[in-house]
Amino acid sequence: MIDLRSDTVTRPGPAMRAAMAAAEVGDDVFGDDPTVNRLEAAVAERFGFRAGLFLPTGTQSNLVALMAHCQRGDEYIVGQDAHTYKYEGGGAAVLGSIQPQPLTNLPDGSLDLAEVARAIKPDDSHFARTRLLAIENTIGGKVLSLDYHRRAVALCREKGLQLHLDGARVYNACVKLNVAPAELCAGFNSVSVCLSKGLGAPAGSVLVGSAEFIKAARRWRKMVGGGLRQAGILAAAGLFAIDHHVDRLAEDHAHAARLGDGLARIAALKVTPAQTNMVFVQVPATEVAGLGEHLKASGIIAITAPTMRLVTHLDVSAADVDRVVAAFGAYFARSARAKDQVPA
Ligand SMILES: *Cc1c(COP(=O)(O)O)cnc(C)c1O
């Protein structure tokens, strides 16, 4: 099966599994797991921060980051489409007592920084205290530029805000922009990096920041139940991923571009060209169900909707992309013929 639902569906290959099997482990709650410690140090170093923290999921990583930055009654500014705001069950508000101030993302995925500045509330007892700006890169497969990052850093410095990057797919941005992680994230207070998306590890995220920030985040991680024990088995997969699966993200981007180009030649579809590893395709509403059946019968798993998101990853080859384009092509050729046969 070719699974295009997400880049989370990858399975660890033999080399990653060998690294996991060979991992030296200890009890990470005691700080004793050498492999976790190596992973935390390696990600922190690559992103230009002093310390790192390994967490089971990106959701928990964002949550403890927000809780470490903000106190009860504080507020964070975030995009309406941001994962932290929209797809994490409202955890910052529910568990952190942190009020979100959502702003509409611009079509390129960014937040208008002038609007961010206007959303900062005065120091007045009527208002929550605006503490933090959270941005996401990539967001919906779109890349925010190095220049945008720098302008966000400058704004936060000027206004005294903390700045968090939900970098679940930040390596996709780095590869696309050809910029090192430490350069892209310079001036941020924290970055959350997923190992289980395009990097292909089975689980895990690493949060990076200052030593003091990570100490606070470690306490929250324990409280929300994220203190794992012999987690080195998972961290070994993460180390393998950051050493072997970063540069190859360019292949995923090339495959997404090839997929977008192929689908764009089908008249019934409207394709938004891929910037990284995601292609968005508008399908006529009347064809959604039929297309879904056809794809399934052709060995392709995708979330069928009027706007479909197709994601390329480690387990999707160029040949797979061509099979997907052919399956879409066959379906729409047949549905066009069927329509021609309907009497006017
Ligand atoms: C997947 C994702 C997360 C959360 O990661 P999980 O490991 O699924 O909890 C956070 N932010 C973004 C942008 C993501 O894509």
Describe the protein's architecture and organization.
By secondary structure, this protein is α/β, with parallel strands linked by helices. Helix content is 44%, strand content 17%. The strands form 3 sheets. The chain has a 7-stranded mixed sheet with strand order 2-8-7-6-5-3-4, with helices on both faces. The longest helix has 23 residues, at 318-340. Pyridoxal-5'-phosphate (PLP) is lined by residues 57-59, 62, 83, 136, 166, 168, 194, 196-197, 205.
Brief write-up:
The chain has 344 residues and is an alpha/beta fold.
**Apparent shape:** globular
Strand coverage percent: 15-25%
Low-confidence stretches at least 5 residues in length (pLDDT < 50)? none
Order of adjacent strands in the largest pleated sheet: 2-8-7-6-5-3-4
Summarize the amount of helix as a percent range: 40-55%
Total beta strands = 12
Q: List the total number of helices.
A: 14
Largest sheet: 7 strands, mixed
Comma- or semicolon-separated keywords:
single chain, 344 residues, alpha/beta, seven-stranded mixed β-sheet, three-stranded antiparallel β-sheet, 14 helices, 44% helix, 17% strand, binds pyridoxal-5'-phosphate
